[in-house]
Amino acid sequence: QQQVKQSPQSLIVQKGGISIINCAYENTAFDYFPWYQQFPGKGPALLIAIRPDVSEKKEGRFTISFNKSAKQFSLHIMDSQPGDSATYFCAASGGGGATNKLIFGTGTLLAVQP
Amino acid sequence: KAGVTQTPRYLIKTRGQQVTLSCSPISGHRSVSWYQQTPGQGLQFLFEYFSETQRNKGNFPGRFSGRQFSNSRSEMNVSTLELGDSALYLCASSLAPQGLNTEAFFGQGTRLTVV
Questions:
Q1: Which residue from A37, A31, A19, A51 is spatially nearest to A103, judged by alpha carbons?
Q2: Rounded mean pLDDT of chain B?
């Protein structure tokens, strides 16, 4: 119930294309869903986050789509660039209590080809 | 505003030794969480501290411990190191343990190698 399942494991996209990464969760008490971007040798960097009261959030080229009934959320990267090549992690937290504990997906290695 | 600072960046230790890692959160942040990142297990939650109190603990053996000081700085300790403890240890800083400001910002991590 605490798992967050992420797919695909790896993704190759041409420059200018759309990258789509999907995540699914079981715990309906989760109320915060962030996405992190991680470059080799660096810590994860918060990219964008959404809460269940909205179905979509957009920040620049990055969009989160959230489907509460299906317990799924996805990251769309529009006009993908070689600089977007990194590992992306979805995560979830919440469920009551005073905690910031994040449950992470297994990560997606994105390669954007020039 | 300075980010999350973790020291040291790299460590090499021998099996059986112990190690202490340090994390200074973003100024004003009172919540610090620790995560272990390995290629096989991904990012796994270790523990979380808020105002010097452990709020939550992950599924790790008792060899893993931590604490938080009054200035919100945190340390984690691993005793009797095993080869499997080799990992990137990440610290995350948050403004508060609940509510709208739950964004967690990570440091660059400490790369621990146990030989």
A1: A31
A2: 93
pLDDT range class, residue B40, cuts 50, 70, 90: confident
In the prediction, which pLDDT does A55 show?
A: 95
Are A44 and B108 a contacting pair at CB < 8 A? no
Report the residue of B33, B60, B102 to disrupt the A interface, i.e. the one with the largest count of A CBs within 10 Å: B102
Q: Which of residues 23-42 of A touch B (CB under 8 A)?
A: 32, 34, 36, 41-42
> How many interface pairs between A and B have CB atoms less than 8 angstroms apart?
66
Tokens read off for A34: 């962030």
Closest CA to B33 of B90, B83, B82: B90
Helices and strands: H and E segment counts in chain B: 0, 11
The mean pLDDT of B22-30, rounded to a whole number, is 95
**Measured CA angle at A14 (ends A12, A19), to 5 deg:** 60
Question: What strand order describes the sheet that includes B5-7?
Answer: B5-7, B19-24, B74-78, B64-68
Q: Is A108 on the interface with B (CB under 8 A)?
A: no
Q: What is the pLDDT of residue B56?
A: 87
